[in-house]
Amino acid sequence: MSTGERQEWMVTLQTATRPPASSSQKHSDSLPHLSSTNKRGLLELRGYKGRVLVSLVGSKVRLCKTEQDFRAGLGISEVELTAANIKEVDRRGFEVSTPFKNFCFVAESEREKEEWVEAIKESIAETLYNYEVAEKIWFNEANRSCADCGMSQPEWASVNLGVVICKKCAGQHRSLGPSLSKVRSLKLDCSIWSNELVELFLEVGNKNANSFWAANLTFEEELHSGATVEERATFIRRKYREKKYRKVLEDFNDLKKLNRALCAAVVSSDVLQTMELVFNGADVMCATGDPDYSTPYVLAQRAGQKLQMEFLHQNKLSDFPRLDQCSENPCLSDASLFMDGFLYVSSGPVKMMPDRRGRDDMARRWCTLEGGFLSYYENERSPSAIGRVDVTEVVSLAVSNSETMTGAGALFTIELYLRTERALTVRAETQETQHDWIQALTKCFVPSKVEGLVQKDSKLIGRLQYKEGHDLYHWRTGWFMLEGSTLHFSSGDEEEVLHLKQLQELKL
Ligand SMILES: [Zn+2]
């Protein structure tokens, strides 16, 4: 018997004689317990020298060299278990294969291997569970074929438009920009599918949404599932941006009338009426005239209309041009917002940000901005993202106009603050790329009607609640931009300017 074999027998026998509960903890005893971790421990990875620290968290397996690397968010690789397979190779070995890459692990014992296989199988089963969102949404029969081209079993959705669409049409919806269409997957973005959102899709769905968007669509103009990329792009642009086929509500050409009708609709159970008004250009954030219930959302909340609330929430950043604006302004600037490049990234809870937490945890990542999501990857070739931020959830963006000296040289900082009280700091290598990223990022969370604010050389831009001098009862939402000591402000109509040096009093 060789020493290796002897060692193996020892471990196997030790494992077998130990009470079951402690065996899985063998390697984790010295490691801090993380409640979100399903399983972690040391495994051999074929093709890699030495053992690696493997952590299974949710639907992801993260491979790190050391515990320090794990805590700093530095990994050798991250395996997304959606669409992954696991198979046992031999007594101690198992293989996890994804559409992009295969990983071969060797555990220290057969028992250990079985525990890993079981834990990973469970996680894979959980990713399949996401099919349940699709199954639920397809329960509405109209949602079983793409709202645009009719392809069967569509797996994507535009969550603000309330339509279920196929993958090819989803690509074209993304290029409309998030202010017209917020594209999400029924399977991959499972965390966003709340009960209310699923219910909204059962209530609205493709048939009702198309009764608005495609009311005047002729048979000849219809899009077919085999259409070319160009045909698809043209059709989707005409349908949602130019509103060429939509139902016309003649009475509602001015914004005041639309907004008044919206305030009346949101307290009823008729979501379809709300939908038509919003798609026609009613302002979801308009003032209701009621001091206690100042936005349509709060009105719906008071009336206990959960679906109305969900619809308004999904459309809080939407910007549908009104009929009178449509012809003048058929093409808005954010048509195909896509950007990628290297940035230094670090993220954490807001309270950790001011001291900048040391510089070494900023890692150079390949970043992409698409469909309102900023994703960062280990490198350009990594198949799955390390992290992803929904930029439409950003409440403010802060810019540092001077360079920051870091271990990686002089970098240019942008800080994004999210509704969830998390913050993401990214640093660009040049001032030009910093500027390009600021332009692209702000387009994702600032409605185009206040886009004028973004053009300037801003230090801080974000959404705030405010009250106005002559009307101290109404809290309203506005967009603010700080440039030097000048505060620019817009609620969507006119831009106002406050010179802070002339300010008499500031109350907190
Ligand atoms: Zn389609």
UniProtKB/TrEMBL annotation:
The protein's name: Uncharacterized protein
Native organism: Ilyodon furcidens (goldbreast splitfin)
Record region (Disordered): 15-35
Domain Arf-GAP as annotated: residue spans: 122-255
InterPro entries, per database record: Arf-Rho-GAP_ANK-PH_domain, ARFGAP/RecO, ArfGAP_dom, ArfGAP_dom_sf, PH-like_dom_sf, PH_domain
Domain PH, residue spans: 1-18, 36-125, 336-446
Keyword match Metal-binding: yes
Pfam families, alphabetized: ArfGap, PH
Keywords annotated in UniProt: Metal-binding, Zinc, Zinc-finger
Keyword Iron belongs to the record: no
Polar residues: compositionally biased ranges: 15-25
